[in-house]
Write a structure and sequence with these properties.
- With 83 residues, this protein is α+β, with helices and mostly antiparallel strands.
- The protein has three helices and two strands, in the order H-E-H-H-E.
- It has helices at 22-29, 48-55, 59-65; strands at residues 39-41, 79-81.
- Strands 1-2 form a two-stranded antiparallel sheet.
- The longest helix is centred in the N-terminal third of the chain and has 8 residues, at 22-29.
């Protein structure tokens, strides 16, 4: 199962103005979403799920980009492609 967690920026501030739509007010609340880094270096205790949560790249995408990686055995220092 893959769980996607979305966070909103800005802490619920109201941008004001008349007739604003939800997407426009979201844009005013914070910085635009930054793309994930190109690679990730595995650290002790990492799992594919924890890496996916931290980077915003799904486990399925990580596995597709890194066909030789065994999801059960991640090696500390191993470099994973994220995009």
């Amino acid at each position: 199962m893959i769980v996607v967690i979305a966070a909103t920026l800005g802490g619920g501030e109201d941008g004001g103005g008349s007739g604003s739509s939800a997407p426009a007010s979201k844009a005013r609340q914070g910085k635009p979403e930054t793309p994930p880094p190109k690679t990730y270096v595995v650290q002790n205790g990492d799992t594919l799920t924890s890496i996916a949560r931290e980077t915003g790249v799904s486990v399925a995408e990580i596995l597709q980009l890194n066909p030789g990686v065994d999801p059960q055995i991640l090696i500390s220092g191993e470099k994973l492609k994220l995009r």
